[in-house]
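Session log. Operator J.P. requested a structure for one protein chain; no other inputs attached. Running the standard single-chain path with token output.
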Amino acid sequence: MKKISKFFAAAMLSLAFVFPLAACGGNGGGGGGGSNKLLEENLIEDQYDNYYEIFVRSFYDSDGNGTGDLKGVTEKLPYVRDMGYTGIWLMPINPTDSYHGYDVRDYKAINPTLGTLEDFRDMVEEAHRLGIKVIIDLVLNHSSNNHPWFKAACQAFISGDRGNQYYDYYNFSQTKKDGYRQYGNIWAEARFADSMPDINLDSANVRAEFQDIIKYWIEDENVDGFRLDAVRYFYYGDSKRSSEFTGLIKEWADAAYKEAHPDEPNGAAFIVGEDWAGSGEIKTFFANAKGANFFDFQCQGSNGYVDKAVSSAMLRDANPAGTANDFFNTLSSVLSKAQGNTPCPFLDNHDVARIAGIEMKEEVRIKFAYGLLSLYTGSNFTYYGDEIGMTGSANDPEKRVGMLWAKDTVGIYPPGATRDPSRYYPFPSVEEQLADKNSILNYYKLCNNARNAFPALMRGTFERVENENENVLVFTKTYKEETITIAVNFASSVQTVKGLGNLSLKQGICVSGSVSGSGASLKLPAYGIAILA
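Structure written below.
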């Protein structure tokens, strides 16, 4: 089954997703200058997109049984696309023994709690029709202890049947070792949990299995790539071998993608890996992984690049000039680590506290954080619900509660989550925020639209522009023939920038108020962002 090119579909639908944008913050209202106009998307066929992470069982319940499902995702895809997202990442959708899905029992099947394979195919078809890429979680480091592979491997090891196909699928021992857990009378490597034994990636049979699984999802089910779980644990303690194996996955995925899409000569599968290590290890992965991409965890969470900038800007005795300098340096850091590949910055995900809680549930801080994230070069990732200011920071289930779609609706609560809406929804529902031009949701939409409208914003290299007002960071981003100038006010008061030449205001992105003027004299409200060209 072949699919229509995402990019052809996106081109056909582009006018449907041109947003009527105000000078700042929403999808209506007043404002001056060049920012009070529609921005047409300018999508490009490459590895750069705005991605939206979805935990299917909490996203939208299509049949009223209390659990989110694939049909629910399909139903809400127009909303996702209207928000300016051109890619989705589905957390694990395979059969599993847990609510979270990271203990896979069958790599080529759909968790029946979430729907059927036909439901998945319908969802992918609709996503591609709308111009949305689909990547799915691929958990190769470990499987469920109830996976048929593990059961067969245990039996083969116990009986000493070295000729058995499954004998070396996992790492076994007769005695306890570091990182090993006991299964009856034997021990197996399982660094995460008893329910998730680690797979032996040196096994030729295992590698053949995984290559076949990758081919299946790309060639038969039309996915566009994978998010790889726990890549630094592929070979525990050996980042070089782990990164090289990630590169092998990328090779397999690209080969399958080219087979599925022979008419896209520059097409490639999108691979993004999860590695919580610091800059040094991330550089090793980018260097050895042959075009695979990796999340930049230094952008996320409390005390990450973005939170530091927001917190510094909003201190009582803030130093806007110093904050501007520090933030600009992070732009270079994120891009340089990628070494020519695609950086993947984000504010939070299913494993960490949501950004709304980190930014103290203050609308100004939440908005400005996403505005700053939008300025990085790369494919940005948003965790579902962040666009309405959802919170959640205790156990994992509380970071994965359901989306609040409408007022007075009850969210979906995964097993283990406290059933208390006040813990998760400090701001109004999707329905209410869509109608409020000044909402967090419409601010997110504005940021995404700017990234889709200006290729240089998502892809560009940058250069700082000196100006007399040190409270305002000014820099250019250039991609091919396009150069845009960006001005960011890190001060808590209105600031004016002069002397930026004969530039016109193209868009303003503000937590409140509006941008006015031009390159000759540009007026920015507190924490306002302007794009000029």
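Operator note: The chain is about 30% helix and 15% strand.
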